[in-house]
C-alpha cells in the first residue's frame, strides 16, 4: 500500500473520531412536565434505605438533581413528613405504616409537575416485607386482577392529576382528584436480592485441603465426611460460603420454612484438635487452636454458652450466626489436669436445635520420678505372677459418665435441646469388638465412623464416644423413663460397661387466656359540684397477661369517661404490662356516674377483667346569706411617761380582720391624743385583713389617756380598739439617784420565717434594741448581733432552728457594777422549702390556632410548652409538666426536646389535636415521673385546597432560542475540534503534495 493511501486512511479515522460527540454524547437534557410511573427502590423493612426509581418516569433522563423530595408517613388521612433528602432510612416508628414519596420538578432545570407513589406497609424484617408483597400479588390474582395491568392503568390515569403542582397526590379520597398509589414490590427489586446474588467467595491462597472426617455436623444435610473438593476450609471468621449462600437465596425466593444445620472445620481438616502431651503439673498451657463453625441452613442460629469440663472454648453469643456465615472460635486445655488421656467431645448447642461438635485430644503424662518408682515396683513383683500367658489377658470396659440424666420434656415435643455424650474406654490388655446397645427410649450413635455391622474395634487403651438423646414421641407419664444402656464386647461377657439414662416426660401445660388489671379495687375520682370546669386527674390502669397465650386487648368505652389507648395492643406471655388511662368527662350532670370498663381479648371474645369506676357529681352549694363581721386587736398599752417627755412610746400595730362572708369597706380612724397610721387596705374580702399603727402624740400633760379608737365601715359592724397612755407629774430628785443595770429582758423567739430568708439582721427580724431595767426604771439599749457567726445556711431547703448571739450596748450613764452579762441569744426557726407547684392549667399548645385557616396542602407545625419546663434552677420538691405524646388519629410520642411536630391532613374536616403532659417532681438530683397526667386540646378545621392546572412552559424553538441547546453532555468538545482541524490540514497538505509531484 502506498504511503499516501495510508495517510488518507489515518485522516479518515481521525475525522470519524471527531464526529463521536454528535453521535454518542449528544443526549438531550430532560425537559418538560413529570409523567409516567414513579417507583421506590429498597426493602420495606426497618433499617433499610429507600430511594426513587425513575426507570418509568418521563421525560427520560430524570435524575435526583432535577427534582425535590418529600417522604411522609400515611396514617389514615394524616400525612406526617419525615424527610426531604433523596434517600430515606426506615425507622422503628414507621412500622405498620405506608410511606408516601412525592417528587416535585425543579423548574430551574426545565422540569415541572409532581409524581407520587405510596408503598405497602413497613415490616419489621426483610422476610416479612417480601411475604407481604407476595401476599398482595396473590390477593390481586385471586380477585382476577393483573398487578402489571393495574400499574399501567395507574400510570395512564396519572396524566390528569400527577402533573398538578399544588395538589397532594395520593391523599384525597374523592375519585376526581385521587392520584394513583404505587405499591413497592420488594421481591422484584431490593438491595437484599443483590446481596444474595453476589455469593462468590475467593479462597485464600494458603488454604489446606481437608482430609476425611473434616466436617462434624448435627441436624444438617451433610454427612460425617467430606472430601477436599466439597469442603471450604477458609479460616476467615464470618465468611459466607457459595453453597450456603445459594441455599439461603433459594429458600428466600421460594418463601420456604427455614432449616437449621451447622458444621465445624478444624485447621488441619482432620476434625480433631490434637494438643499433644505434657507432664502432670504443667504450668504452660498449649497454644489455642481454631475451629471454623458454619451455618449451613437457611435460618439464623443462636448459640448457647459453652463450658467443657477439661477444655476452655470461646462462646458464640455476640449476635446470631446468619445463613451461610462462619465464625472462628478458639479451644485450649484447662490448667491443672491430672495425668491421663483426655478425648472430649466439644459440643456447641443452639436454641434452634442444630448442635455441632468436634473432638479435642490432650494427654497429661506422669512425671519421670513416678515412672521410676513404678518400674522398681514392677521389678520386685514375683515373676511367677506373670508366667502364665492365659492369666495376662484382661477384658475390661469402663464408661464415663455412668449416669445420663436429661432435662424434663413436655409431651408432644418435636425436638430435644440437649445431647449428652458417653465415652467407653478399653482398660483391658486386649483389643475388643465393642457392641453398640439397642435402646427402646434413647437414640445412640457413635461420634466417629463405625463398621457397617454397628460394632467398633477398640484397641487396648482406646476410647469411643457416643451421643445419647431421648427419642422423639415419648408419651407423658408419672415416672421417668430409666434404661440401662449396656456396651458389651464379643470377646468376653465380663467386658461390659453400663450407663443409666433417664428422662422425665411431663404432661403438656394447658393453654390459658387470662389477664389481670391493677389497681384491683375501683378507680375513685371523688365528688365534684355540678358545673365543674376541670375534670379529676386521669388515673392509669395496667393490664398484665397471666396466661400462656397472646392476647389482643380491646377496651369498652363508658359514656361518661375518656379512656386512653393502651400502650400495647398485643401482649405475649411474659411481656411488660400494657397501660391506659381513664378520666371522667367534663359537664356531667348531677348523679352517680359509676361504671365499668371491660378488658376483652379480641382473639377469643372473652372478657378477661373489669375495671370499676366511681365518680359523683353533686348539687352546687347554695350561696350563703350575707353575714358581715370584723375582729380587731383587743387593746394597746403604752405605759407611763413623765410630763415633758421627749421620747415617745413605740408605735403599735392594730390588725383588723374580715371574719364575715361578704366584702367590707373600712374608713380611716382618727384620734386627738394618738397618731393613727394609714390603713394598709380599705376593701377587705372575706378572710382578708388590714393594719394601721397607733402612737401617743408628744406634749401631753399629766393625765390618763384612755380611748376607744373606732374603725368605721360600710357594713356598720362595731369595731374598735382600746388604747391607754399615762402621763405623770415630773419628779425633781431623780438626778441624785445612781442609774445601775439590774437586768436585761430577753427578746422573744422568732419563728416560721420562709425558706431562703437572707442572712441579715433585718431579714431575720432581729430587734435593734432590747429593754433593760435599772435602778431608775426601764430603758432601751441597742444590740449588736453576730449574724455571720450563726449556723444558718440560706441555701438549704431543710427546716433550720438556730441561735443568734448579740451583745447589749448600755446607754450613756448606765453602770454595771454587778457585772451582769450583756450577752443574749435569740432562737430563730426557718421553715423548710415546700416546692414550687406547677399548674396544669399553664400547659400550652402554640403554633396552631382553632381560628386558623388550614387546607389539605398546609404543613402545620406546633409546639407543646409544659408548665414549669423553664425551671432551670430546680430545687427539691419543685414540679413541672413534661410533654409526653400527641394525637390526632394515632398517638405519637416524644423522646425529648424539642417538643414540636409537623403534620399535614389530606382530608378536609374538623380535627382535634390532643397533647398529653406528665407531671414530674424534682428529688434533689433529677426529675421523676409522679404518674399524674394532664391533657390539653386544640380543635381546628381543614378545608379542601384549590386544585390548580399547571400551564406547560413553551418549548424552545429556533425562533425564540437565545442560548445553546443543553445536551446533558459534559465531554470537552475543544479536543475533537483540534483533531478535526489537524485532519483537514493534513489532507490539504497531501493534496498539494500530490499535485506538485505530478
Overall description:
The chain is 11% helix and 37% strand. The chain has 998 residues and is mainly beta. The strands form 16 sheets. Strands 11-9-6-7-61-58-56 form a seven-stranded antiparallel β-sheet. Strands 32, 34, 36, 38, 39 and 40 form a six-stranded mixed β-sheet that branches. Strands 50-52-53-54-55-51 form a six-stranded mixed β-sheet, with no helix packed on it. α1 (3-18) runs antiparallel to α9. The model is unreliable at 22-27, 148-254, 381-390 and 953-968 (pLDDT under 50).
List strands and helices in order, with pairings.
Elements: H1 3-18, H2 20-25, E1 32-33, E2 35-36, E3 39-41, E4 49-53, E5 57-58, E6 67-75, E7 78-83, E8 87-89, E9 98-105, E10 111-112, E11 114-121, H3 126-142, H4 147-157, H5 191-197, E12 215-218, H6 242-254, E13 262-266, E14 272-279, E15 289-295, E16 311-313, E17 326-333, E18 340-348, E19 356-365, H7 368-379, H8 389-392, E20 397-400, E21 403-405, E22 409-410, E23 420-426, E24 432-435, E25 442-446, E26 455-458, E27 463-470, E28 481-489, E29 496-503, E30 505-506, E31 515-518, E32 523-529, E33 539-545, E34 551-555, E35 561-563, E36 570-571, E37 578-584, E38 591-592, E39 595-601, E40 607-618, E41 630-632, E42 635-642, E43 652-658, E44 664-665, E45 674-676, E46 683-684, E47 689-696, E48 703-710, E49 720-728, E50 741-744, E51 750-753, E52 769-774, E53 777-785, E54 800-809, E55 823-830, E56 844-846, E57 854-855, E58 860-865, E59 879-887, E60 891-893, E61 900-905, E62 909-922, E63 927-943, H9 974-997
Parallel strand pairs: 1-10, 14-19, 21-29, 22-30, 32-40, 42-49, 51-55, 57-63
Antiparallel strand pairs: 2-5, 3-4, 4-8, 6-7, 6-9, 7-61, 9-11, 12-13, 13-15, 15-17, 16-17, 18-19, 20-23, 23-27, 24-26, 24-28, 25-27, 28-29, 31-33, 33-37, 34-36, 34-39, 35-37, 38-40, 39-40, 41-43, 43-47, 44-46, 45-47, 48-49, 50-52, 52-53, 53-54, 54-55, 56-58, 58-61, 59-60, 59-62, 62-63
Amino acid at each position: 500500500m502506498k504511503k499516501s493511501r495510508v495517510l488518507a486512511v489515518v485522516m479518515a479515522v481521525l475525522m470519524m473520531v471527531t464526529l463521536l460527540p454528535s453521535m454518542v454524547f449528544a443526549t438531550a437534557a430532560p425537559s418538560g412536565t413529570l409523567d409516567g410511573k414513579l417507583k421506590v427502590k429498597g426493602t420495606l423493612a426497618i433499617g433499610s434505605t429507600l430511594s426513587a426509581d425513575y426507570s418509568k418516569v418521563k421525560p427520560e433522563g430524570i435524575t435526583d438533581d432535577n427534582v425535590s423530595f418529600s417522604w411522609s408517613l400515611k396514617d389514615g388521612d394524616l400525612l406526617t413528613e419525615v424527610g426531604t433528602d433523596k434517600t430515606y432510612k426506615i425507622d422503628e416508628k414507621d412500622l405498620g405504616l405506608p410511606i408516601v414519596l412525592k417528587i416535585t420538578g425543579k423548574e430551574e432545570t426545565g422540569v415541572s409537575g409532581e409524581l407520587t407513589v405510596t408503598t405497602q406497609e413497613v415490616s419489621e424484617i426483610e422476610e416479612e416485607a417480601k411475604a407481604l408483597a407476595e401476599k398482595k400479588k396473590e390477593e390481586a390474582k385471586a380477585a382476577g386482577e393483573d398487578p402489571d395491568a393495574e400499574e399501567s392503568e395507574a400510570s395512564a390515569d396519572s396524566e390528569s392529576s400527577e402533573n398538578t403542582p399544588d395538589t397532594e397526590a395520593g391523599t384525597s379520597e374523592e375519585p376526581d382528584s385521587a392520584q394513583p398509589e404505587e405499591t413497592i414490590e420488594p421481591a422484584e427489586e431490593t438491595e437484599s436480592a443483590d446481596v444474595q446474588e453476589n455469593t462468590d467467595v475467593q479462597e485464600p491462597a494458603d488454604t489446606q485441603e481437608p482430609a476425611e472426617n473434616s466436617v462434624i455436623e448435627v441436624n444438617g444435610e451433610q454427612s460425617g465426611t467430606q472430601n477436599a473438593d466439597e469442603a471450604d476450609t477458609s479460616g476467615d471468621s464470618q465468611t459466607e460460603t457459595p453453597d450456603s449462600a445459594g441455599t439461603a437465596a433459594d429458600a428466600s425466593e421460594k418463601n420456604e420454612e427455614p432449616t437449621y444445620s451447622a458444621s465445624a472445620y478444624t485447621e488441619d481438616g482432620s476434625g480433631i484438635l490434637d494438643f499433644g502431651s505434657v507432664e502432670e503439673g504443667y504450668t504452660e498451657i498449649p497454644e489455642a487452636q481454631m475451629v471454623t463453625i458454619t451455618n449451613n441452613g437457611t435460618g439464623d442460629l443462636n448459640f448457647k454458652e459453652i463450658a467443657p469440663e477439661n477444655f476452655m472454648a470461646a462462646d458464640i453469643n455476640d449476635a446470631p450466626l446468619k445463613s451461610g456465615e462462619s465464625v472462628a472460635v478458639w479451644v485450649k486445655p484447662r490448667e491443672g489436669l491430672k495425668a491421663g488421656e483426655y478425648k472430649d467431645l466439644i459440643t456447641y448447642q443452639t436454641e434452634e436445635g442444630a448442635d455441632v461438635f468436634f473432638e479435642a485430644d490432650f494427654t497429661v503424662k506422669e512425671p519421670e520420678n513416678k515412672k521410676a518408682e513404678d518400674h522398681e515396683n514392677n521389678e520386685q513383683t514375683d515373676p511367677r505372677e506373670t508366667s502364665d500367658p492365659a492369666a495376662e489377658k484382661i477384658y475390661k470396659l469402663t464408661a464415663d459418665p455412668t449416669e445420663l440424666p436429661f432435662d424434663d420434656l413436655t409431651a408432644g415435643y418435636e425436638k430435644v435441646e440437649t445431647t449428652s455424650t458417653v465415652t467407653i474406654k478399653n482398660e483391658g490388655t486386649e483389643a475388643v469388638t465393642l457392641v453398640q446397645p439397642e435402646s427402646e427410649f434413647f437414640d445412640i450413635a457413635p461420634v466417629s465412623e463405625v463398621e457397617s455391622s454397628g460394632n467398633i474395634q477398640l484397641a487396648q487403651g482406646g476410647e469411643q464416644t457416643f451421643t445419647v438423646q431421648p427419642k422423639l414421641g415419648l408419651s407423658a407419664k408419672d415416672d421417668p423413663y430409666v434404661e440401662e444402656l449396656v456396651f458389651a464386647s464379643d470377646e468376653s461377657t465380663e467386658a461390659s460397661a453400663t450407663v443409666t439414662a433417664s428422662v422425665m416426660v411431663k404432661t403438656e401445660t394447658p393453654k390459658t387466656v387470662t389477664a389481670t388489671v391493677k389497681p384491683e379495687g375501683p378507680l375513685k375520682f371523688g365528688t365534684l359540684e355540678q358545673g365543674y370546669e376541670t375534670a379529676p386527674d386521669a388515673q392509669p390502669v395496667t393490664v398484665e397477661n397471666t396466661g400462656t397465650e397472646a392476647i389482643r386487648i380491646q377496651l369498652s368505652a363508658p359514656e361518661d369517661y375518656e379512656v386512653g389507648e393502651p400502650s400495647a395492643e398485643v401482649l405475649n406471655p411474659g411481656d411488660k404490662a400494657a397501660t391506659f388511662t381513664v378520666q371522667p368527662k367534663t359537664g356531667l350532670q348531677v348523679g352517680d356516674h359509676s361504671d365499668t370498663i371491660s378488658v376483652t381479648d379480641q382473639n377469643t371474645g372473652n372478657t378477661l377483667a373489669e375495671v370499676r369506676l366511681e365518680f359523683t357529681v353533686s348539687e352546687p352549694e347554695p350561696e350563703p346569706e350575707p353575714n358581715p363581721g370584723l375582729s380587731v386587736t383587743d387593746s394597746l398599752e403604752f405605759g407611763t411617761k413623765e410630763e415633758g417627755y421627749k421620747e415617745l412610746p413605740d408605735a403599735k400595730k392594730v390588725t383588723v380582720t374580715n371574719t364575715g362572708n361578704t366584702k367590707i369597706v373600712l374608713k380611716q380612724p382618727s384620734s386627738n391624743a394618738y397618731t393613727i397610721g394609714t390603713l394598709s387596705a380599705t376593701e377587705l374580702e372575706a378572710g382578708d385583713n388590714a393594719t394601721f399603727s397607733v402612737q401617743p402624740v408628744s406634749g401631753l400633760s399629766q393625765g390618763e389617756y384612755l380611748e376607744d379608737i373606732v374603725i368605721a365601715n360600710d357594713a356598720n359592724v362595731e369595731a374598735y380598739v382600746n388604747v391607754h397612755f399615762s402621763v405623770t407629774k415630773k419628779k425633781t430628785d431623780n438626778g441624785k439617784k445612781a442609774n445601775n443595770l439590774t437586768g436585761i429582758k430577753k427578746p422573744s423567739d422568732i419563728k416560721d420565717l420562709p425558706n431562703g430568708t437572707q442572712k441579715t439582721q433585718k431579714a431575720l427580724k432581729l430587734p435593734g434594741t432590747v429593754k433593760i431595767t435599772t435602778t431608775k426604771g426601764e430603758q432601751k439599749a441597742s444590740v449588736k448581733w453576730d449574724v455571720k457567726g450563726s449556723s444558718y445556711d440560706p441555701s438549704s431547703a431543710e427546716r433550720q432552728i438556730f441561735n443568734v448571739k448579740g451583745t447589749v450596748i448600755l446607754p450613756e450613764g448606765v453602770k454595771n457594777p454587778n457585772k451582769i452579762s450583756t450577752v443574749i441569744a435569740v432562737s430563730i426557726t426557718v421553715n423548710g422549702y415546700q416546692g414550687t407547684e406547677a399548674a396544669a392549667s399553664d400547659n400550652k399548645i402554640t403554633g396552631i390556632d382553632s381560628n386558623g385557616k388550614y387546607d389539605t396542602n398546609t404543613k402545620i407545625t406546633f409546639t407543646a410548652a409544659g408548665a414549669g419546663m423553664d425551671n432551670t434552677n430546680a430545687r427539691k420538691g419543685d414540679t413541672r409538666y413534661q410533654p409526653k405524646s400527641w394525637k390526632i388519629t394515632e398517638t405519637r410520642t416524644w423522646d425529648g426536646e424539642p417538643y414540636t411536630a409537623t403534620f399535614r391532613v389530606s382530608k378536609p374536616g374538623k380535627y382535634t389535636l390532643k397533647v398529653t403532659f406528665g407531671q414530674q417532681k424534682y428529688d434533689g438530683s433529677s426529675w421523676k415521673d409522679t404518674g399524674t397526667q394532664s391533657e390539653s386540646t386544640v380543635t381546628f378545621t381543614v378545608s379542601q385546597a384549590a386544585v390548580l392546572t399547571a400551564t406547560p412552559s413553551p418549548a424552545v424553538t429556533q425562533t425564540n432560542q437565545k442560548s445553546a441547546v443543553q445536551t446533558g453532555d459534559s465531554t470537552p468538545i475543544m479536543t475533537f475540534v483540534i483533531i478535526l482541524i489537524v485532519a483537514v490540514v493534513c489532507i490539504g497538505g497531501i493534496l498539494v503534495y500530490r499535485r506538485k509531484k505530478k
